[in-house]
Design goal:
Blueprint lengths: L30 H23 L11 H18 L6 H21 L3 H12 L30 E10 L2 E10 L4 H14 L13 H10 L8 H16 L1
Antiparallel strand pairs: 1-2
Helix pairs in contact: 1-2, 1-6, 2-7, 3-4, 3-5, 4-7, 6-7
Length: about 240
């Protein structure tokens, strides 16, 4: 997926953007490159486990040296994203505008609405930096979903950033476009429900870490910090409701 670049920069992690639903890292690699991809995939899974468990059952000491580096970097990125835990007026206005569709999608996915809202906020920069058509109009693609060969709706080509072996690489891809936000949320919920790779994110209720880890494991993004960023942002929104 392509989540918007935030104003808070993190050394060695910026720009913070990711891919659309693709096979998990290392799943389709072969030859010499496949060996490296497989190792990186294992590392990503190791860190995802650490993030998902919150360090409760897996101490940082049990991670590999590379895993400890990534765990530290993802934690720093997530903390910077969340900030002081409060939402600005513009951010709250965005959350209010998508609330009905977030609830609808959340019901279908079996998760708390705040998790869906957090995902939309992460991917679109709180609605401030969504994908746009050449004329400047919004595609309403708040979740940065790619347009594959089976997609029958409107689409556009746009720049994005993929992470390959942990390094950010600028590239271009084709993305879906929707007539309105309601359509975007319904397509998002349908895509996650229909794709078995994201089964781990479904039915996770209000567990932000499980939801984020399920999406990351399914290949929703190649950014190694993605699960940490999403889970922290979702937890922030959940905290604002209490």
């Amino acid at each position: 997926m392509r989540h918007a670049e935030f104003s808070t920069s993190i050394p060695a992690l910026a720009p913070t953007a990711a891919t659309r639903p693709t096979a998990a890292i290392g799943a389709t690699n072969s030859g010499a490159g496949g060996n490296f991809g497989g190792v990186f995939g294992e590392l990503q899974g190791e860190v995802a486990d650490f993030i998902q468990n919150g360090g409760a059952s897996t101490s940082s000491a049990t991670l590999s040296a590379e895993g400890r580096v990534w765990a530290a970097r993802t934690s720093a990125a997530a903390n910077a994203l969340v900030g002081d835990g409060s939402t600005s007026t513009d951010q709250q206005a965005f959350l209010d505008s998508i609330a009905p569709w977030a609830r609808e999608a959340a019901d279908k996915l079996g998760v708390a609405p705040e998790l869906v809202s957090a995902h939309a906020a992460l991917e679109s920069g709180w609605g401030q930096r969504p994908l746009k058509h050449a004329d400047g109009s919004s595609t309403n693609n708040l979740f940065g979903i790619k347009a594959g060969s089976a997609w029958q709706g409107d689409a556009l080509d746009a720049a994005t950033t993929e992470y390959v072996g942990g390094a950010a690489v600028k590239t271009s891809a084709r993305f879906r476009a929707y007539p309105d936000q309601a359509s975007a949320f319904r397509d998002y919920a349908q895509m996650l429900s229909d794709n078995p790779r994201f089964r781990g994110a479904l039915g996770t209720g209000s567990d932000a870490q499980a939801f984020a880890a399920g999406l990351a494991r399914g290949g929703y993004a190649t950014d190694p910090a993605y699960a940490a960023k999403l889970s922290r942002l979702a937890a922030k929104l959940q905290g604002s409701k209490s």
